[in-house]
Structures are given as structure tokens and as C-alpha cells.
From TrEMBL, chain A:
Functional description taken from the UniProt entry: Required for the activity of the biotin synthase BioB.
Keywords, alphabetical: Biotin biosynthesis, Iron, Metal-binding
Cofactor(s) listed: iron-sulfur cluster
UniProt superkingdom: Bacteria
Protein name in UniProt: Biotin synthase auxiliary protein
Record-annotated Biotin synthase auxiliary protein C-terminal domain positions: 42-64
Family, per entry: Belongs to the BsaP family.
DNA repair found in the keyword field: no
Annotated Pfam families: BsaP (PF26519)
TrEMBL record, chain B:
Essential cofactor(s): [2Fe-2S] cluster; [4Fe-4S] cluster
Top class in the EC scheme: transferase
Catalytic reaction annotation: (4R,5S)-dethiobiotin + (sulfur carrier)-SH + 2 reduced [2Fe-2S]-[ferredoxin] + 2 S-adenosyl-L-methionine = (sulfur carrier)-H + biotin + 2 5'-deoxyadenosine + 2 L-methionine + 2 oxidized [2Fe-2S]-[ferredoxin]
Stated family: Belongs to the radical SAM superfamily. Biotin synthase family.
UniProt-listed GO biological process terms: biotin biosynthetic process
InterPro entries per UniProt: Aldolase_TIM (IPR013785), BATS_dom (IPR010722), Biotin_synth/BioAB (IPR002684), Biotin_synthase (IPR024177), Elp3/MiaA/NifB-like_rSAM (IPR006638), rSAM (IPR007197), rSAM_sf (IPR058240)
Protein name from the UniProt record: Biotin synthase
GO molecular function: 2 iron, 2 sulfur cluster binding; 4 iron, 4 sulfur cluster binding; biotin synthase activity; iron ion binding
Positions that bind [2Fe-2S] cluster: 116, 209, 279
Domain Radical SAM core positions: 58-284
Name of the gene: bioB
Co-factor note (free text): Binds 1 [2Fe-2S] cluster. The cluster is coordinated with 3 cysteines and 1 arginine.
Organism whose genome encodes this protein: Lentzea waywayandensis
Amino acid sequence: MITTVYCSFCGKEEADGDHAFCRQRLSMIDPPRYCAECARRMVVQVTPDGWTARCSRHGELGSAR
Amino acid sequence: MTAAPEQIDVLDEAREQVLERGVGLTEAQVLKVLELPEDRIPDLLALAHEVRERWCGPEVEVEGIVSLKTGGCPEDCHFCSQSGQFPSPVRSAWLDIPGLVRAARQTRDTGATEFCIVAAVRGPDKRLLSQVRDGIKAIREDGNDIQIACSLGMLTQEQVDELVAMGVHRYNHNLETARSHFPEVVTTHSWEERWDTLRMIRDAGMEVCCGGIIGMGETLAQRAEFAVQLAELEPDEVPLNFLIPNPGTPYENYPVVEGAEALRTVGAFRLALPRTILRFAGGRELTFGDLGAKQGMLGGINAIIVGNYLTNLGRPAQQDLDMLEELSMPIKALSQTL
Ligand code: SF4
Ligand SMILES: [Zn+2]
Ligand SMILES: [Zn+2]
């Protein structure tokens, strides 16, 4: 299970500050860019019907469209 | 006493000039359109739609795009999250050939006739071109006959010839903005360098796809200038993007283009480019939400990118296909494009 500590849009701590804008972008047009567990920048590949995002420490996430 | 000369309405002028005669608006006329009050927008969009139907027909061209090489670009286009010169969270990535084949198949399955392979580079090197060559071969071996376009930055004549030999039928290279505004947006290469690549593409017989991004701090006059500069190029297709203020880029705090302004721009560009494929590209989700997309389709747009973009996500393709069905707009078939 992934513990969400960091915002995957801005990379800052979820507990720190307001991430309403980040959440809106993530729900509309952005794949995650930062690992939620360690805030590393992930290697993201967007394809016509999905995306994958890989953290060097915590592995790969993908969209399930 | 003589009566004051009657103010000529730019939409009346456009009806006679663009709709009847197929002659695009001049720069001064485009500016007048961009300055129309909000209550004239419905008239503008209705006319732009008529122009599109008259000079382009009812079909909508559907395209999918994919990023073959993401991020780490040495150029400094200030809007771009893939420039290596800004602290953007976008990291470098390469899509492998099986991934490219899958992306092409996903695109074909939507009914799209165009698949554009894009790389974030100043221009292609040998490795990139050989990846594109292998990719196109693999897409064909997969039984996929979709038309292939590329967007790989600035080209040499030799590279243009290589792409033609690979069967690439259209090349995308955006001028991005008005010539007078370009130096504010990009400092690592010039508008003229981009223009030169476009001329080579045209001369080699490839279709020219060239558009830009609205909302990068250009004035309305510069927007009009850009529309007319595009018309001068006579591109086969113009993709119209609206700025996505991406984190880490110099434009991250720029405002999103407001819906009414975006619609005015759509209408004005159609009236400047009556015969061109005018494509809704990136940023429409932020600018319009779900509602405005329809207004754009009824306001001069006759092509869309479905699914995701290069680094940003779009609406699911099916949502756009449903919209076209609801609007009774037929999707251009592959046979019509050959
Ligand atoms: S050349 Fe293309 S990929 Fe590179 S920074 Fe400019 S827009 Fe981005
Ligand atoms: Zn955040
Ligand atoms: Zn991690």
C-alpha cells in the first residue's frame, strides 16, 4: 500500500499547505510527477490512452483507464 | 450636413470576402475580430462554422500524438515543460518500439487517421531518426495503415529527404507565436530558423502542419499578426494550443486563456485561414472545460487531437468521439485522405 506523504503534482508535503490547485490539475490534465512516498521526481511516459510513472525507489504506477 | 460614414461591420465584410470568395482576412481585419464585444461572439462563431463547412466540408480529422523522446531539450521555449533549462519536474524518457506500436494502435482504434510521433529536441540526431525509422516499420508490420506525421524539431535537407523516404506524410513544426513576439518566448533559436525548416518540408512535398500557442503574453495585435503570418505560409494544418502554465517554466504563473477570448481566437483564425485544417490541440481542457469544446467545434475547428498529449493528459478519446457524434460531424476516413 502506498502511503501518501507528498503531493504528486508539486512534490511538497501533503500536510504542508494547500494542495487544492494541485489536486485540480491532477484530476484534469496532469499525470503524477513526484513519488507520493519519497517525493523523488518520477520518469513519466504519457501515451494516447494512459500514463506510467516510475520512481527509482518505489517502482511503477500506471493509469487504469 | 452629411451623415457620418457608416461603420463597416467586420463580420459583414468577412461574409462577403471569406465565405463567398474564400479570401482570408487581413491583419487589420483579424484584429477587429479579436476585439469584437462578447455579445458578437455567437455571430462570429456561426460565420466561422459556415466558412469551415463551405471551404473544408463537414468532416473532422482526428489525430493521436505520442512523445517518443520526452524532456531534456536544450532549447528554452518559455512555455515548455520539456526544456532542460528550467526546473520543471518533467524528466527525460524514451518510449520503446513496442510502446510506440501500442500507441499507434490505440490511436487507430479511435478511428483516427493521423498519428504524430513527437520528440523534444532541437533537431533529430542519427539515433532519433533511426528510432523513428524502426518505429514506422514496426507500426506497418503491426498491420496499421494510419498516416504518420512527425514533429522532431528543425531539420536539414538531408533529414527532410530521409523522412520523405520513410513515408512520413506530414511534418509538424510550430512557429508558436507572432514573429515580433518570438524573441520573448525563445532565445536559443529564431523564428526564421523555424520558417526555413517549414519551407524545406513544403518543397519536399510533405504536408505542412504549423501552429502555435495562444496566451503567452502576446498582444491582440500580435495574435492577428500571427494568424496572417500562418496564412502566408499556407499550411495544410494549424494546431491551435492554449497555454498550459506548467510548473517550473517561466510561464508557470501566466493566467489560463479565458473561454470567451479563446473562442474569439478560434473564430478569427478560421476567418484568416478558410481552407486550412484547424485543429484543437493542447490546453482546451483548462481553457474551456467540457462545454466550450463543443462551441469551438461549431466555431471553425475541424480537427482534434484525441486522448492524451505529450506530457499532459486530455479527455478520454471516447468523450470527444461522443461529442462529434452528438454534433453529427463525420470523422474523416482514411480512404478520403489518401
Ligand atoms: S524545442 Fe520543443 S521540446 Fe524543446 S523546449 Fe522548445 S518546445 Fe520544448
Ligand atoms: Zn501540491
Ligand atoms: Zn519513491
